[in-house]
Design a protein that fits this description.
- The protein is an alpha+beta fold.
- It has 2 domains: 7-17 and 166-283, no CATH class; 32-162, Immunoglobulins (Immunoglobulin-like, Sandwich), CATH 2.60.40.10.
- It is built from 7 helices and 15 strands.
- It has a 5-stranded antiparallel sheet with strand order 5-4-7-12-11, with no helix packed on it.
- Helix 1 (7-18) runs antiparallel to helix 6 (242-255), helix 5 (217-233) packs parallel to helix 7 and helix 6 runs antiparallel to helix 7 (267-283).
Length: 293
Amino acid sequence: MSQNVNETGLQGQTKQLMDGPLKHIRVAALAAVLVPLASVFAAPASAQDCFSGGCKVTGTVFTDTNHNGFQDAGEPGIEGVNISICLLCNGTDTVPTETGPGGLYSVFVDVPGSYTVAVLIPTGTQPSTAVVGGSAGVPDGHGFSVATGVPVNTPTSFGFFTSTASNPGTGTPGYWKNHPDAWPVNTITVGIVNGVGGVTYTKAQAIAWLGKVGKDKTTTMFSSLVPAILNGLIGNDTSCVSDAIKAGHLGMATYGPVGSNVAGGSYAWSVGEPTHQTLDAYNNGQLCAPHRN
């Protein structure tokens, strides 16, 4: 760890990274339980319109072959994509759903206004960011494409296209621990902030730490961050976890280095655990890059 990093400043940067459109991303077994923060409210219509079943959040998730943000003829919908919808986005009003045949999703809501829609980026794809249906689905760096200010009864669609990365497949911590010959580098630096600092480990040192995951949560973060870095270095798409990788480095700079005995019940881990879960899902091929064969 760089001893020149100011902890107070790093905590502020950590908060800024995590206080994005989605405050806490907890990805486990593709549950996609989301707690988005940002929502833009429109002038409400009569509440009775919604209680009578007239208000819904709807749209399509589709393959955007030409990357233009619109579903053109011949571009199919994508079925089975996890979606979360919320109004206040305070952790209590999130409605999970998934796309059906033709990539369609539709959720009836009780309150008029504008909603936040978060879509889990399908494996091996990148999101189109063109405006569709009055709202842009923007990749949030944690594996989701997020649209805010989505009015009720206004279809909002999300387009995804095949990643341009070679995507040879992601490896888990166990894979990288047991396959030293597959490492694309002989050293790896963890805890880099704004391109500087960090602790550099030899391949042997890093592999040794990958085998020591336990109650110390710096070992847990190390075990998800290092494989994510390696998975990107061999050509896998990291666009969906770019912010998570930055947050992982920042957490290790603030509370590390690995072996610093951070407890599971600590504030540090309450901040770091969502990042770990995102990186772990990525390493297991559940986000924008497929798992290795």
